[in-house]
Amino acid sequence: MVRLSRMKRSPVMVERVVVAIDGGPASTAALDWALERAKGQPVNLELTTVVELGWAPAGRPDDDFRPVYERALADATRRVEHEAPNVKKTSYVRRGVPADELVRASESADLLVIGTNKTGVLAGAVYGTLPLRLAAHSSCPVVVVPATWKPKAGSIVAGFADDATAVGALAFAAGEAVRRGRVLDVVHAWSIPATIAVEYGAVIPFAELREAHSAILAEAAGRVRAAHPGLEVRDVLEQGPAAMVLVGVSGEAELVVVGTHGRGAVGSLFLGSVSHDVLLNLKCPVAVIPRPDRVPDPVEP
């Protein structure tokens, strides 16, 4: 049973938000999202681009593309100055492997924001699979923003699993819902374990299983309500694979929040053999929250 005694977040006076910039439509969406979120709250934006080693044309120096990255970063900086003149900002050009450099940036950040073009199994993503790798290895929460994102009001959805990932995911989701004045939907998916189906044969205790999962969800939602008395919290219990359930509720959501175990497994929802592609079809930004006591893992090549 997950204990949520640490769920109430300590107030953060000024958040440090790192936004990955590469000049493409996905990074534009990431900056759009970060600027929209920054309205009405103090943040320090770090606009970061990574000049990837080994991507120069044959026979030319490794930093041959540096001016392109620098222009993209300068354009993003000017945009922040124009649209959010009161937001404190810094800009950095990093050199190295994008995943490694952004994981390092996450170590001193409160939030890392990156865009993605990926909308299906065959589609590409910013820096390839970078958003997925960052979600698994970042020291801070990662928000993955679809390139097609547009601002809209909707509920904040927390994908709830009865394990250690729930603490951070529920805390972050509740904080976002309070900050934005939104409803929080705590979504819990359940299914009949294969072992039970084999043991009971044709007689499966469907009602008992559903009641047990409903009680787990009610307890978690109750703890959120106790920590945030003015927040409207809705319990959403659905039968089926967790990833498919989250995809189903994401159409009307403003943000979906899930937890991560690290080492490539995100709350048993992200980065699975099929689930990671399903979740990347979400119609809204996804926040992936690392377990509070997890030591960051090295990024595998």
TrEMBL record:
Naturally occurring in which organism (per UniProt): Cryobacterium mannosilyticum
Domain UspA: 13-146, 156-290
Superkingdom assignment: Bacteria
PANTHER family referenced in this protein's UniProt entry, alphabetically: STRESS RESPONSE PROTEIN NHAX, UNIVERSAL STRESS PROTEIN UP12
Family statement drawn from the similarity comment of this UniProt entry: Belongs to the universal stress protein A family.
Gene3D superfamilies, sorted: HUPs
InterPro entries found in the cross-reference section: Rossmann-like_a/b/a_fold, Universal_stress_UspA, UspA
Name under which the protein is recorded: Universal stress protein
Ranges that cross the membrane: none
